[in-house]
Amino acid sequence: MIGIIICHRGLAFELVNTVDAIVGHHTELYPFSNEKISPEQLLKELENFVQYKGNPREVVIMVDLMGGSCWTAGRMLCRHHPTFRLLSGVNLPMLFSFLTKKDLFPYEELIEILERDARRGIATAP
């Protein structure tokens, strides 16, 4: 199972760098940016990457913003690969959850856990 992170500008790369700094290097998260390319061009990059990775069935796509161009590219990729799942609102708790739980839970259950853990990472302090 792999995780693809698609964000505006350099956010996906910075998220991966931050995760690396906290939990150590990993090989399961792959960042992509929409900077200076159309959703169609981004989709082509993503399709090439998926082919390079051997067309895995279980891919979690995590994007920064629902409805934006990153989301659009992710949705198009999911249409071409119906087993892929797309989540918006990527944050560090979602990424930590992915890395620590991807080998412990079935794919469909993991998607629900990632959403829950990402929401749990948002809190208001008194």
The rounded distance between the terminal residues' Cα atoms is: 38 Å
Count of runs of 4 or more consecutive helical residues: 5
CATH homologous superfamily title of the domain at 34-120: Phosphotransferase system, mannose-type IIA component
Given as residue ranges, the uncertain stretches (5+ residues, pLDDT < 50) are: none
**Count the strands?**
4
* Helical amount: 40-55%
Strand order of the largest sheet: 2-1-3-4
Q: Examine the secondary-structure arrangement and name the CATH architecture of the domain at 34-120.
A: 3-Layer(aba) Sandwich
Order of secondary-structure elements: EHEHEHEHH
Provide a descriptive summary of the structure in words.
By secondary structure, this protein is α/β, with parallel strands linked by helices. It has a domain at 34-120: Phosphotransferase system, mannose-type IIA component (Rossmann fold, 3-Layer(aba) Sandwich). The chain has helices at 11-23, 39-52, 69-80, 92-101, 107-120; strands at 2-7, 29-33, 59-63, 85-88. The protein has a 4-stranded parallel β-sheet, with helices on both faces. The protein is globular, with a radius of gyration of 14 Å. The mean pLDDT is 96.
